[in-house]
Design goal:
The protein has 8 helices and 7 strands, in the order E-H-H-E-H-E-E-H-E-H-E-H-E-H-H. A 7-stranded mixed beta sheet has the order 4-3-2-1-5-6-7, with helices on both faces. A hairpin with a 6-residue loop joins strand 3 and strand 4. The chain is α/β, with parallel strands linked by helices. The protein has one domain: 5'-nuclease (Rossmann fold, 3-Layer(aba) Sandwich), CATH 3.40.50.
Length: 213
């Protein structure tokens, strides 16, 4: 049987940062630089069977409407370039779909200023289309995403004969996806932290100076 792993990149990024930090104080984005996604996937699935792994992320461009958006978009482009390089080293394909959109945030309670921010749009649609396209009785789909917008695609994929393994997060089981999927696996906090670059160095016996004797 063929196995295809579909990763909603931003959803997984947010999930791992919440698990490494907390819901109230997620870890910084750069915490996931050089993250061992292959190791996490292998542990979640409990085997090392061959699989095509596709990581979905938005097409990026510079936003120069103001200095803050330009800074945000430049940082996003830089982080994505490093991410793509890390994924390629692990044999994971980065699939660009959707786009990055500028939106106004809530007004500041003190000055009323609305700070703009960037958010991904259309990535879930691209992933859903690929899921249904890959579906067959000879294909097992592994979905890394807790986005319930993907529920119709999961149901259609199963009707087309595929087994679907839903991978969510221990703090957000997402019952609708879990109920629809053939099997559910959850990423735990210890699991998320285990495959950080710094943790891997510790596991390999490197000494990291933390200012302690």
């Amino acid at each position: 049987m063929n196995r295809v792993v579909l990763i909603d990149g931003e959803n997984l990024n947010r999930g791992l940062r919440n698990l490494i930090g907390s819901l109230e104080n997620p870890a910084a984005r750069n915490t996931l630089q050089s993250y061992n996604y292959r190791g996490l996937i292998n542990e979640i699935l409990g085997d090392k069977e061959k699989a095509q792994v596709l990581y979905f992320g938005a097409r990026l461009r510079k936003y120069d409407l103001d200095e803050e958006l330009l800074k945000q978009s430049n940082e996003a482009i830089s982080l994505q370039a490093k991410l793509v390089n890390d994924l390629q080293k692990q044999g994971i394909n980065f699939i660009k779909v959707g786009y990055l959109r500028a939106r106004e945030g809530k007004p500041c309670p003190e000055c009323g200023h609305k700070k703009a921010f960037l958010t991904e749009k259309g990535v879930d649609v691209g992933l859903a289309v690929r899921m249904v396209t890959e579906a067959s009785s000879e294909t097992e789909i592994v979905l890394f995403s807790a986005d319930t917008d993907l529920l119709p695609a999961v149901k259609t994929t199963i009707k087309l004969g595929s087994k679907v393994i839903f991978v969510g997060y221990e703090y957000q089981p997402t019952l609708a996806l879990s109920k629809a999927a053939s099997l559910t696996r959850l990423v735990t906090a210890p699991m998320a932290k285990k495959y950080l670059a710094n943790q891997l160095k510790l596991d390999e016996g490197e000494v990291i100076d933390k200012g302690e004797k």
